[in-house]
Structure formats: C-alpha cells, structure tokens
Amino acid sequence: MKKLVLLSAFLFIFQIQVFPTIIIVDQSGGGNYVSIQEGINNADNGDTVLVYPGTYYENINYNGKNITVASLLLTTQDTIYISQTIINGNQNGSVVEFVSGEGLNSIIKGFTITNGFANLNDSTASGGGIKCINSSPTIENNIIKENACDWYLYGGGIFCMNSNSYILNNTICDNEGAYCGGGICIYDSSEVLIKGNVIFNNITNSGYGVAAGGGIFVGGSMSYAVIEHNTICNNIVDFGNGGGICSYNASIVNTTLWNNYPDEISGENTIISYSDIQGGWPGTGNIDADPLFADPANGNFNLTWENFPVPDDTKSPCIDAGDPDSPLDPDNTIADMGAFYFNQIVTSVEPSIEAKPNHKLFQNYPNPFSFKTTISYYIQKEENVNIVVFNSIGDEIRTLADRKQIAGKYSVIWDGNDNSGKQAGSGIYFYQLLINHKAVSTERLILTK
After folding, report:
1. Which of 52, 56, 223, 286 has its CA 20 to 30 A from that of 278?
2. What CA–CA distance (Å, rounded) separates 267 from 269?
3. CA distances from 278 to 199, 323, 369, 414 (A)
4. Are 397 and 424 in contact (CB under 8 A)?
5. d(CA 275, CA 254)
C-alpha cells in the first residue's frame, strides 16, 4: 500500500513538472505580478503570461523569449476581454517590441494596444503600436488603435523589418504613420502573412515628401507579403499614393479595398486576384461592386444579405466570390472576400433534438494553477445552474455559480479559496456542472502552491 501511495505521489509531481509555467498578471494584486513586463522577465521559453483585465500603462519587450502573452481571450474564447485588457504605451515609444530574434512562437494575443508613439530620439524607432525588427512574432486577435509615429518614421500601427511575422485577425484602426504605412509597414521583410485583419481609418502623413500606404505599405529590398482575407477601408494618404495598399512585391487575394484615399492600390510586382477593389483592378476574379457592409461608419464591416437566402441585389457581391481554390468558409461555402464571411447555415425554427447543442463543461485554464483559474461552460437553454468544486474525497469545497441563466457560454474564476474564504491546499480537485441540481459533467483540475 505504501508503494502505491509513493508511486501516485511521484506521478503527481511528474505531471506538474511537465506543464509549462502559467504566469498570472493581475494589476489588482491577485496574481504572480502586477505588470506585464514583470511577467515576461520571469518567464522561460514555452511559458504563458496570462493577463487579467485592466489598463496596463507600460511598454513591453519580449527580450528574445518565445512565450505567449495573452488576455483571458486565450482561456475563454470570449472576445470581450480584448477591449477589457489594454496596454497603453503612454506615448513613450512602441507599446510592444520584438527586437531580439523572437520567432513565430512569440505570441501576443487578445489585447487593445494603444497610445504608442515612435519617437525620433530612439535610433530603432518605428512602429507606434508594435515594432518587429530582426524578429518574426505572431500578432493575433488584437485591437491596435490610436498609435502614431514621429516624422520620417514608418508604421503607425505595426512595423516589421527583416521579419517573417504573422499578422492575423486583428483590428488595426485610427493609427497615424509618417511616410509609409499608417496601419502596417513591411520593410525589407520576406513572406510576412497578413490575414483576416480589418484595417480602417489609418492615416499616412507626408511631412516634407511623398507618403505611401495608408492601410499597408510593403517595400524595401526583398520584401514580400501575402495579403489575404483582409478588409481595408477608409484609410488616407494625405499627399502621395496607395491609400489602401502601396506594395512593391505582394500577393493579394480574397481582400476588399474600399473608400481609401486617394486610391485603393499603388506599386508594382503585386499579383491581385479574387478581390473587391473600388474603381476596379485587372486580375483573375477581381470585382468592383459595393460590398454592402453592415455599418462601416461605426466600424462594422460584416457582409450583409438582407433577403437571405433569396439571390437578389441585397446579397453582398463579396459572398461566395473569393478564390474557389481557397479553403471553404466555415459554413462549407466558397470563400467570401474580406475579413468576415457571411454565415449561410440556416437554423431551423424548431431544430431536432439531435441538432441542439448539449450542455458542456470546458477544461479550466490554466491547469495546473496557483492563484486563479477560469472555468467555462455552455448551457443550451434557460436553466438553474451550479458550478461546484470538490476535493478528491468528494467534499464540497467551493460553489462558484448558483443561479438561473439563459442559454449561452459563461465563465467563472476560482481563486483557490473554499466557501469560508480559506485557501485550499495543493492537490487534485474536481469541478462539476449541475443543471437543475443534477450533475451533467465533471472535470479535474490541479492546484499547486
């Protein structure tokens, strides 16, 4: 019996050791650190710095580490955390810097990145929001807005030089660049992927010369970018060209360029296909037709089809108009043009029992955890819901939810305390989803101290 206990203890310790570290940043003091940079400084390659909601006034540098820095979007898939977790650069340089050889496993995800200012006093300045020099991070699911560059500098929102970065599913808006790239500037970089982004209301100022690329600029020696499934609208170059895109070597596909000033595209050596471009552009599958956005004046660039599924003139011309050889949209239809697809799956008014989603309890994250962990769950209709944590012998430790809720996905946070407010000890715990006081799902978690 003693051997069995020792073996179990050994396996438990081994299980904890093989997990990368989850570092919690919470400015309220409930995590490991109160600033994001402190979390980065104490992280090792492969770790995750998980940032709780708040406004963090700082300028962060990854210091060459291949780590993930993310909001609770990472653990919950709830996009509300993007707007609730803000890194404010306080106009004190680039908000986020990748300048020490970081690779694609250096990830920033789920933040609002704002109020950065690239200043001439910095010899490596450019990129008011995010700077990537000799580095190739992954930048995904962020709002990058209201950043700027000093005169003669590039990339109000993002600047990449000698980089193969992935820029995925971001909103890049209201940034101001000087000379090249109000939204994004790609310079002396090969095979940068720009995909799924909405890029709008950015400005490139000319200063004492000619400016280029209000939305995106791709230039310099050996630069090349793949630009696909983006929506690029309402960007401006005050004196110059390429209000939407100025590119000297790129592939553009399944992209919408509309209402950019003074023109949609300029440059050379750029292949454009299956894209909606105001004023037209030569190339396979390109169209020139109002994309019928939902509410572009307020930043809603979803495609519309008022009389769906009737194939009339209320259908956005971008629907099913993308490259037929591209991967299908999630609804298994031909790819749409732009960052957002129109969902053509028809839901019956009274779906069959088989078609209804089940109640679901998700694995907590992080796991193991030391300070806080998030537990998410889904309910299919209005029910009485309980989320309860038990110890390994079945004693109730903490009730995290006890309420009636309508259909939807929810999240609760356990701080490791029991119902009396005392800290629970390290070990294995179980959490349970109960519907109308009947258990429907149970998952395991590990608390470490």
Report:
1. 223
2. 7
3. 16, 18, 51, 51
4. yes
5. 5
User: Cα angle vertex 134, ends 128, 137, to 5°?
Assistant: 70
CATH 2.160.20.10 domain span(s) along the chain: 14-296
Dist. CA 411–CA 435, nearest whole Å: 15
Look at residue 426 in the predicted model and tell me its pLDDT.
83
What one-character DSSP code corresponds to residue 261? B
Structure tokens at 283: 């190339």
Q: Distance (Å, rounded) from C-alpha 254 to C-alpha 291?
A: 12
Q: Are strands 225-228 and 192-195 parallel, antiparallel or unpaired?
A: parallel
Assigned CATH for 14-296: 2.160.20.10
pLDDT of residue 133: 95
Over residues 140-168, the pLDDT tens digits come to 999 999 999 987 789 999 999 999 999 99
Q: Residue type at 306?
A: E
Condensed to tens digits (0 to 9), the pLDDT of residues 214-251 reads 999 999 888 899 999 999 999 999 999 999 999 999 99
Topology (CATH) of 353-447: Immunoglobulin-like (2.60.40)
- For CATH 2.60.40.4070, list the domain ranges present in the chain: 353-447
Residue 253 has pLDDT above 60, yes or no: yes
Integer Cα distance of 308 and 75 in angstroms? 34
SS3 380: coil
- Under DSSP, the state recorded for 171 is E
Q: How confident is the model at residue 428 (pLDDT cuts 50, 70, 90)?
A: confident
Question: Rounded to whole angstroms, what are the CA distances from 8 to 5, 369, 446, 448?
Answer: 5, 20, 14, 16
Beta bridge partners of 388: 399, 432
